[in-house]
Design the sequence.
């Protein structure tokens, strides 16, 4: 357990106080968030060597997923110069589950510092950072190089809230407002089942079906031949031109049905056939009237 190791180091520091040359000077704790490109501090706390053992700075601290937490500590050596220690930790303890997370302060410039990005930490450990849970926050300092070991109790009631201010509340939606945004939370894994290949019909049956579809075309041409209206046998008079026009309209209907099978939808097919119906009706009626006259 990480906590056990921390307190073991604190215990060892009491034994070796005579050889230590580094002492704690001051520390600061901040909770901040970014709004319109500007960093705003939600909470600030500071302590020094004389006031570190006072009660917790805040009775209650509320944090949100968009916040970031930073802790900074300053240590001095015998010459009053900034020094670094490897035994400074920022500790969070979940008061409901008893679990804890510990972050090591590292040397940055003249001080020791640690930054905790809550958005990243929540994604990494959803079981620890839970809505409406409370946390104990401590800065633990101790080690062989320190003249004394101590703990700064920053707060014992830090509450994690999804949204604690009106700025983070979701605005009311209208009747016709729909959420089309990409979901931020992870969705369950979807495994597409592998469908077995469909069994195709026998090739002889496919050929027979194709022959049945194409058979009306030679039947139609043969009927025109027997009736004496085949385009190549017509005379170039008015009646012959009417017959050719009527036959072209019939072929256009067949072509429209073929396009419906290959590419068009039913609406496009209806529109084309509605336009072709007009010349087909007029030419067919004209041919019937001339046949009746004769």
Sequence:
């Amino acid at each position: 357990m990480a906590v056990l190791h921390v307190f073991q180091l604190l215990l060892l520091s009491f034994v070796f106080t005579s050889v230590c040359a580094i002492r704690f000077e001051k520390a600061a704790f901040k909770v901040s968030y970014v709004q319109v490109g500007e960093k705003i501090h939600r909470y600030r706390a500071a302590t020094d060597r004389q006031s570190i053992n006072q009660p917790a700075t805040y009775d209650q601290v509320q944090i949100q997923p968009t916040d970031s937490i930073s802790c900074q500590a300053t240590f001095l050596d015998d010459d009053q110069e900034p020094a670094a220690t490897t035994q400074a930790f920022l500790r969070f303890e979940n008061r409901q589950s008893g679990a804890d997370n510990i972050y090591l302060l590292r040397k940055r410039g003249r001080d020791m510092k640690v930054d905790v990005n809550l958005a990243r930490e929540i994604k990494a450990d959803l079981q620890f950072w839970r809505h409406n849970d409370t946390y104990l926050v401590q800065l633990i300092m101790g080690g062989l190089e320190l003249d004394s070991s101590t703990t700064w109790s920053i707060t014992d009631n830090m509450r994690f809230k999804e949204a604690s201010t009106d700025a983070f509340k979701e605005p009311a939606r209208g009747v016709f407002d729909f959420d089309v945004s990409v979901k931020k939370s992870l969705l369950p894994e979807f495994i597409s089942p592998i469908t077995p290949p469909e069994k195709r019909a026998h090739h002889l049956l496919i050929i027979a079906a194709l022959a049945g579809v194409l058979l009306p075309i030679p039947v139609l041409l043969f009927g025109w031949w027997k009736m004496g209206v085949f385009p190549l046998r017509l005379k170039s008079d008015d009646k012959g031109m009417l017959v050719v026009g009527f036959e072209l309209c019939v072929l256009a209907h067949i072509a429209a049905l073929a396009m419906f099978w290959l590419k068009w939808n039913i609406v496009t097919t209806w529109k084309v056939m509605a336009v072709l119906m007009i010349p087909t009706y007029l030419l067919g009626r004209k041919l019937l009237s001339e046949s009746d006259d004769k």
